[in-house]
Design goal:
The protein has about 250 residues and is mainly alpha-helical. The protein has one domain: Ferritin, CATH 1.20.1260.10. The protein is built from ten helices and no strands. The radius of gyration is 18 Å and the shape is globular. The protein starts with a helix and ends in a 6-residue tail after the last helix.
């Protein structure tokens, strides 16, 4: 078993979950309606739980404690995709990001149930049951604001898709460990995931009377190899401020 390849996969997944959890949590108290305030807060809690489970798995493979991993690295040590780093923007931006990210996560965890690394396969079965509610929430709103909405809602959700869809391909950015990850059976690979994601996203978007833009799929690559947007380090500074005051504190 190539531990470094496995850890690379786990770090990418964990960092995505941690950062999107923080971004989603920023809607607490700001949602356009109370139900959405609660929904995004709940989804954020789930994502944080997924990150903790993955960081705990990394700790079992010889990495630092989960809190140390999450709260003491700077941006140059993070493996997250650029998609999760962007500020929440207007609600349409966050909703479309949630839609695109969670469909990818749902498919990823479905595929990971066949992982050769048993702890990851077991976690994937548990997480899959949670993420199906995330995707149900996202898909419902895309359809509601698209085919069932008015001219303004459709125009705004289409504009958000135009902006976010190109960035979403950063989820599938490969690293130098990709071939080993596939050959060791840890995961079937980013190409398989991307193909299934595009098919699923296209189906939902089209059924909602919306259009996917043509994109350069590599434009937003970099995050998996520690090249991030200008938004990540300020987010990390904000996210870790309490921990940095007293790293040894017991909660």
């Amino acid at each position: 078993m190539n531990k470094e390849a496995l850890k690379n996969l786990l770090y990418r997944m964990a960092d995505d979950s941690l950062i999107i959890a923080h971004r989603n949590s920023e809607w607490t108290g700001l949602g356009p309606i109370l139900e959405e305030d609660i929904a995004f807060s709940s989804i954020a809690q789930d994502k944080l739980g997924h990150a903790l489970a993955l960081y705990s798995m990394l700790h079992e493979l010889g990495e630092d404690e989960p809190d140390t991993i999450a709260f003491t690295r700077n941006e140059k040590l993070f493996f997250c995709s650029q998609l999760v780093e962007y500020p929440i923007g207007e609600y349409d931006f966050s909703l479309v990001r949630h839609f695109l990210f969670d469909i990818a996560e749902k498919i990823r965890y479905e595929l990971l149930q066949q992982s050769s690394y048993e702890p990851l396969a077991k976690l994937a079965k548990k997480v899959s049951s949670e993420i199906k509610y995330h995707t149900f929430h996202a898909e419902t709103w895309i359809k509601q604001l698209g085919s069932n909405g008015n001219e303004e809602s459709k125009a705004r959700i289409q504009s958000a898709i135009n902006a976010v869809y190109p960035i979403a391909f950063s989820i599938f950015e490969k690293t130098s460990f990709e071939d080993t990850i596939v050959s060791d059976g840890f995961f079937v690979g980013e190409e398989v995931l991307q193909l299934r994601w595009v098919e699923r996203v296209t189906s939902i978007v089209t059924a909602s009377g919306l259009i996917l833009p043509s994109v350069d799929q590599t434009t937003h690559y970099g995050g998996r190899n520690h090249y991030h947007t200008e938004y990540l380090q300020p987010l990390l500074d904000e996210m870790t401020v309490v921990f940095q005051i007293d790293p040894g504190a017991e909660w």
